[in-house]
Write a structure and sequence with these properties.
Blueprint (H helix, E strand, L loop, with lengths): L7 E4 L5 H12 L3 E6 L2 H11 L10 E5 L5 H15 L4 E4 L14 H29 L2 E6 L11 H21 L4 E8 L5 H4 L3 H8 L10 H11 L11 E4 L11
Helix pairs in contact: 1-2, 1-8, 3-4, 4-5
Bound molecules: nicotinamide-adenine-dinucleotide.
């Protein structure tokens, strides 16, 4: 399928993991891409690989070094994307970091790092892109929550930020609805990315054993869901949180 021909897709945190997998998937469906990350080398590597999907990595992909926690950098990224491609159809708020700690040991820096990227970053990107989507009467905003949004031991910062993502996504769904702009969230479970690899191995194994489908997810599982939620076909879907988690969100007895 090439559902994204003549569509411009912006993805934050596109240098690795889920951001890279989604970039490759949108590229394979013909999108023009505006990719950003704090890591210049990795986002350029993602862009180079997008050529394998059949688009021109030198003409159809724009890479930028952007810290989503910094509003002027985000504003410049959106303005530059509009200058290059003329429109913004899809915004994927994917950038995120973890700094796990128990409540009583959590530092202000750990709190700020997580909330600034996932929550403030999403706010900056939505605020900058929304007026253009509204003016053109079409837009798709997809934001990354986590299965942790319902609460997760050792993640007060991350759970709070990811619950905030849900609240913001649903509110933007209401504000965007009269203008053809949808806003949804994906709540991934355990997906095989560098972020998951950075987690405590014992904790990761314990969690993985609880996945009803019996294995951790692949980034392409997320890219598949994103490619649907950001397509024209999903025009009547807004304000949802889609669990892509092998069923771990259901809870229940360990396998
Ligand atoms: N992998 C999982 O199991 C999992 C589970 C639940 C939720 N998520 C969420 O999915 C999203 C992607 O996760 P991932 O596993 O691919 O993570 P990852 O750590 O592998 O990749 C995240 C990317 O974001 C970039 N980034 C970090 N801070 C940034 C900033 N301030 N501005 C711009 N880019 C920044 C990083 O450089 C990196 O390239 C995150 O929001 C994460 O919280 C992941």
């Amino acid at each position: 399928m090439r559902r994204y021909t003549d569509r411009t897709v912006m993805i934050t945190g596109a240098g690795q993991g889920l951001g890279r997998a989604m970039a490759l998937r949108f590229a394979a469906e013909g999108a023009r891409l505006a990719l950003c990350d704090v890591n210049e080398t990795s986002v350029q590597e993602t862009a180079a690989r997008c050529g394998d999907g059949g688009i021109r990595p030198d003409g159809d992909v724009r890479t930028s070094v952007v810290d989503v926690a910094d509003a002027p950098q985000v504003d410049a990224w959106v303005a530059g994307t509009l200058e290059t491609f003329g429109r913004v159809d899809v915004l994927v708020n994917n950038a995120g970091v973890i700094r796990d700690n128990r409540l009583e040991r959590m530092t202000d820096d750990e709190w700020d790092a997580v909330v600034d990227v996932s929550l403030r970053g999403m706010f900056h990107c939505c605020r900058a892109a929304f007026p253009h989507m509204k003016a053109q009467g079409y837009g798709r905003i997809l934001s990354f929550s986590s299965m942790s949004w319902r609460g997760n031991f050792g993640q007060v910062n991350y759970a709070a930020a990811k619950a905030g993502v849900v609240g913001m996504a649903r509110t933007i769904a209401l504000e965007g609805a009269p203008h053809g702009v949808t806003s949804n969230a994906i709540a991934p479970g355990l997906i095989d990315t560098p972020m998951l690899a950075s987690m405590n191995a014992a904790g990761r194994a314990k969690l993985a054993a609880r996945v009803p489908l019996g294995h951790i997810g692949d980034p392409t599982d997320i890219a598949e869901a994103a490619a649907y939620l950001c397509s024209e076909a999903a025009g009547y879907v807004t304000g949802v949180v889609l669990d892509v988690d092998g069923g771990i969100g259901i809870g229940g007895a360990p396998r």
